[in-house]
Amino acid sequence: MKKIAAFLIALMLAAGTAMAETNIRVDGSTTVLPAMQKMVEAYMKANPGVNITVSGGGSGNGIKAVIDGATDIAMASREMKEKELAAAKEKGRPVKPMAIAMDALAPIVNPANPVSNLTVEQLRDIFAGKVKNWKEVGGEDKEIVVISRDTSSGTYEAWQEMIMGKDKVFPGALLQASSGAVLQVVSKNKAAIAYDGYAYVNNTVKALKVNGIQGGEKTVADKSYPVSRPLFIIVPEAASPEAKKFVDFIMDPAKGQKIIAEVGYFPVKK
């Protein structure tokens, strides 16, 4: 009987532990994803009773998910639109966008490409399909292969706003579903050009200067680099206490903001 009682007590304790576990869902931007994954890992290590799942389906999908109540926190590499903010209120889930980092959006090419600088106008003409050969912008006589993020991406929308203006990325561009996929394609194609978040840039690609200015923490801070943007999390005003604790961790200069800097983005709090 004592063994049975002990077993039942252990079972009840295990059930209590399972019930006490907190689950938080985070979804959205693949640009924010590398930093978020590291922050989640650090937070769960410090808080064993918390389980956080992260997926990167794009800013638009993340924002929709947080409006619909399908995720607890959304990641976004663009600002929320007025219609999205209105939709959240209409569904009884008003949300608060919070800038957690700054990013230099980098035009990237293969390291074998001799071009090192392009103007905003040249980038616009390349992505609009008006400039088709690298020799037109000081490169080799090769047809330009344009790589772009898909239209559900906040990075696509940021590029559209800051570079394309009234023009559109032309239909011949090869659309990619994630920042990682963009990097992989450019690293394997000597004639390719794309754009990606600064934290993704590594030695498999080359980041170009824009208007003669290299993207970096200083040029983003002083706004001399023409292609920079904030990165966001979108948090429901009625978020759970544990979700709010995780948000506090993200904004803590000694914790989440330190991880953001380690990943390669620029913290908003120091």
Describe the structure in your own words:
The chain has helices at 2-20, 33-46, 59-68, 82-90, 120-127, 154-164, 179-188, 217-221, 241-251, 256-263, and strands spanning 22-28, 50-55, 73-76, 95-109, 117-118, 145-149, 174-176, 192-197, 206-207, 209-210, 228-236, 266-267. Strand 6, helix 6 and strand 7 (174-176) form a beta-alpha-beta unit. The chain folds into two domains: 2-102 and 230-267, 3-Layer(aba) Sandwich (D-Maltodextrin-Binding Protein, domain 2); 104-228, D-Maltodextrin-Binding Protein, domain 2 (3-Layer(aba) Sandwich). Helix 2 packs antiparallel against helix 10 (256-263). It is of the alpha/beta class and 270 residues long. The strands form two sheets. Strands 1, 2, 3, 4, 6, 7, 8, 9, 11 and 12 form a ten-stranded mixed beta sheet that branches. The chain has ten helices and twelve strands. The radius of gyration is 22 Å and the shape is globular. Helix content is 39%, strand content 23%.
Features:
about 270 residues, alpha/beta, D-Maltodextrin-Binding Protein, domain 2, 10 helices
